[in-house]
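Sanity check

After download, print the first record. It should look like this:
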Amino acid sequence: MSEQSAIDAAVKRLALALDALDAAVERRREADRSEEALANQVQALGVDRSKLAAALDGETSRSRKLEATNREIAERLDAAIADIQSVLDTHQK
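Expected C-alpha cells:
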C-alpha cells in the first residue's frame, strides 16, 4: 500500500469516525431534549396533582357540610312530622 493510499484510507476512517461522532452527539442532544420535555411534563403533573388535591379537599369539606345540613334538616322534618302527628292525634280523640 502506498503512502498516499494509506493517508487516504486514514482520512476516510477519520471522516467516518467524525460522522459517527456527530450522529452520537445529535442522538444525545435529542435524548436531552426528550429528558427535559419529560421533566417539564412531570413538573406539570405535580402542579396538576396539587390543584386536584386542593379541589378534592374543598369538595370533601363541602360534602361533609352538606351531610351535616342534611342530617339537621332530617331531624327538623322528623320533629315537624311528630308535632303534626301529635296535633292530629289530639283532634281525633
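If your output differs, re-run the checksum step. Summary of this record's structure: The CA atoms of residues 3 and 22 lie 28 Å apart.
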